[in-house]
Design goal:
The structure is a single chain. The protein contains eleven helices and five strands. The protein is of the alpha/beta class and about 260 residues long. Helix 1 (about 15-25) links the parallel strand 1 (about 5-10) and strand 2. Its main location: cytoplasm. Keywords: Activator, Calcium, Cytoplasm, DNA-binding, Metal-binding, Phosphoprotein, Repressor, Sporulation, Transcription, Transcription regulation, Two-component regulatory system.
Length: about 260
């Protein structure tokens, strides 16, 4: 079986050495190259075939966000899964990184085995994912389009948290009945934050939409509800359920065509 090809970009040379030694000791993993700043990271990725990139947020020349932006714009590199590493729990940066395509976040310091577990998780998810029929939108595209159409500003932390919540509920409908015990903790784990912050950020994002009265008419048309039905701001779980139901109906109608 082919090994998972991993690249590391971090200006902490000691940490890079420790990660490299640990991951190379795993039977299914191989660190193919390392870089110590953002500029050489991009050059490295253009020369190497890489499955997973471990990317520090704060680096010389180009930071992690700039590297993500470069990957997103490069058709040959945008399929690389990225795990962001950071010593700072700045949610605005994490939210921006998620919008640029980061797969996961790990706060420093961390246990090396946690890193290996996450790499395996990402690769398993990749191998299990079935591509959509040609010409059809992916689930992620549909969710992004819906959240943007509703009018939630992408710069809000709740934007990324909502997208993740909708994804989880589409895949596991039962978690909608366990928002505090399962849904919020799951999102918090991915973004390396707390369940309380996830709940608060999603609530704030919904409030931003409901505080703009002209938006309610627009949302009513999207979801097929009357304006009167939407006069009261929904709870987080009610809003997520509305979006999920609308997406399921959209996907069902397309499959029937």
């Amino acid at each position: 079986m082919d090994k998972i090809k991993i690249a590391i970009a971090d200006d902490n040379r000691e940490l890079v050495g420790l990660m490299e030694d640990y991951l190379n000791a795993q039977p299914n993993m191989e660190v193919v190259d390392v870089a110590y700043n953002g500029k050489t990271c991009i050059e490295m990725l253009q020369k190497q075939t890489v499955d997973i990139l471990l990317l520090d947020i704060i680096m010389p020349y180009l930071d992690g966000i700039a590297v993500l932006d470069a990957l997103k714009e490069n058709g040959d590199l945008k399929e690389i899964d990225v795990i962001m590493l950071s010593a700072f729990g700045q949610e605005s940066i994490m939210s921006q990184a998620a919008d640029y395509g980061a797969s996961y976040f790990i706060m420093k310091p961390f246990e090396a085995n946690r890193l290996a577990v996450q790499i395996n998780h990402i690769m398993n998810a990749r191998s299990n994912a079935a591509g959509p029929p040609e010409g059809r939108l992916t689930q992620e595209d549909r969710i992004t389009n819906m959240v943007k159409e509703i009018g939630i500003p992408p710069h809000l932390k709740g934007y990324s948290y909502l997208k993740e919540a909708i994804t989880l509920v589409l895949e596991q409908p039962e978690v909608l009945n366990k928002v505090t015990k399962v849904l919020y903790p799951g999102i918090a784990s991915k973004f390396d934050t707390t369940s309380a912050r996830v709940e608060r950020s999603i609530r704030h994002a919904i409030e931003q939409v409901w505080n703009r009265h002209e938006t309610i008419d627009h949302i009513a048309k999207i979801f097929g509800y009357s304006v009167a039905h939407l006069e009261s701001k929904p709870t987080n779980s009610e809003f997520i359920a509305m979006v999920v139901d609308s997406l399921r109906l959209e996907m069902r109608n397309e499959s029937d065509q």
